[in-house]
Backbone:
C-alpha cells in the first residue's frame, strides 16, 4: 500500500504508520515540492539562450572576409615560394606546407567550421604551390634570357611542364592535405 506523494494531489488522510515508502520521505516538505531529477523540477541557474536573428549574416560576412584574406595569403605565399633564393630551389618543394598554413589560418579562424572551407583551403594551397612554381620558372627564364617578364610568362608554363618531377606530386599532396587539415584544425567554434 502506498501513499500519494506529498503535494501531488494533497496530503493523505491515512495515518503515517500506514504509509509505505521505499525511501524515507523528506520531513514536512513544502507544497508543490518535486524531487530533484524528477520531471517538472526547475533547473537552478538555467537561462534559455536568447534568439538571435542577424548571426547568419554576420557569419556569412566573416566567411567572405576569410575567403578574401585566404586568396591574398595564397598570392603572397606564391610570391614567397616563387622568389625563394636560387640555391634553395632544389629543397624549396618541402616548404609546400608554408603556403598551406598561410591559406588555412584566415579560413579557419575567420570562416569558422563551414563544410566548404577545408576543401577550399586545399584548393588554394595547391594553387599557391602552382603559382609559386610558375613564378620561379619565370624568374629563372628571366635570368637566362633577360627578356621582360610579360613575354616570359607565357613561356613559363611549357617550361614548368617539361621540368616536372615525380617528387612534385608529393609536394602537391603535402599542399592539398596540409591545406585541408590545417583549415579544419584552425577552425573555431561559433
Residues:
Amino acid at each position: 500500500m502506498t501513499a500519494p506523494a506529498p503535494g501531488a494531489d494533497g496530503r493523505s488522510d491515512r495515518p503515517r504508520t500506514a504509509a509505505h515508502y521505499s525511501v524515507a520521505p523528506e520531513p514536512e516538505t513544502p507544497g508543490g515540492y518535486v524531487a530533484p531529477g524528477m520531471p517538472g523540477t526547475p533547473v537552478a541557474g538555467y537561462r534559455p539562450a536568447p534568439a538571435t536573428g542577424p548571426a547568419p549574416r554576420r557569419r556569412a560576412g566573416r566567411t567572405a572576409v576569410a575567403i578574401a584574406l585566404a586568396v591574398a595569403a595564397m598570392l603572397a605565399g606564391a610570391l614567397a615560394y616563387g622568389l625563394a633564393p636560387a640555391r634553395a630551389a632544389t629543397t624549396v618543394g618541402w616548404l609546400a606546407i608554408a603556403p598551406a598554413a598561410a591559406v588555412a589560418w584566415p579560413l579557419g579562424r575567420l570562416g569558422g567550421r563551414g563544410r566548404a572551407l577545408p576543401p577550399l583551403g586545399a584548393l588554394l594551397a595547391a594553387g599557391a604551390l602552382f603559382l609559386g612554381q610558375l613564378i620561379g620558372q619565370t624568374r629563372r627564364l628571366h635570368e637566362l634570357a633577360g627578356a621582360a617578364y610579360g613575354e616570359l610568362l607565357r613561356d613559363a608554363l611549357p617550361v614548368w611542364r617539361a621540368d616536372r618531377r615525380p617528387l612534385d606530386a608529393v609536394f602537391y599532396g603535402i599542399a592539398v592535405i596540409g591545406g585541408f587539415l590545417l583549415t579544419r584544425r584552425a577552425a573555431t567554434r561559433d
Observations:
- Residues 117-145 form the longest helix (29 residues).
- Helices lie at 55-82, 97-111, 117-145, 149-162, 166-186.
- The mean pLDDT is 76.
- Residues 69-186 form one domain.
